[in-house]
Task: inverse folding
């Protein structure tokens, strides 16, 4: 029984251009030294290039790429008798994004 309060997950605000919280999370993770504006410009420029070259919706292509990169299972160590086994376990969606 912990003595500290549980941390509350704040909702992620969607970005201005694509109105997508996934883009906001990506920018936050890619950002270095607090340079959010620089990172946002880079992401938006990449999305514009993607739109010009592929003639598809860049947000759909971005989401498809993220789905391809997300892991489906992870291995956890389980001790059975004197041996330790790596057991594959499905990952919940929020953890898939974090990994």
Result:
């Amino acid at each position: 029984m912990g003595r500290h309060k549980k941390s509350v997950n704040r909702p992620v605000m969607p970005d201005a251009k694509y109105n997508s919280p996934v883009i906001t999370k990506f920018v936050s993770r890619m950002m270095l030294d607090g340079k959010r504006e620089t990172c946002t410009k880079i992401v938006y420029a990449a999305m514009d290039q993607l739109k010009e070259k592929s003639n598809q919706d860049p947000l759909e292509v971005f989401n498809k790429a993220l789905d391809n990169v997300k892991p489906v299972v992870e291995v956890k160590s389980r001790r059975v008798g004197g041996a330790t086994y790596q057991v594959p376990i499905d990952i919940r969606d929020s953890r898939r994004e974090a990994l």
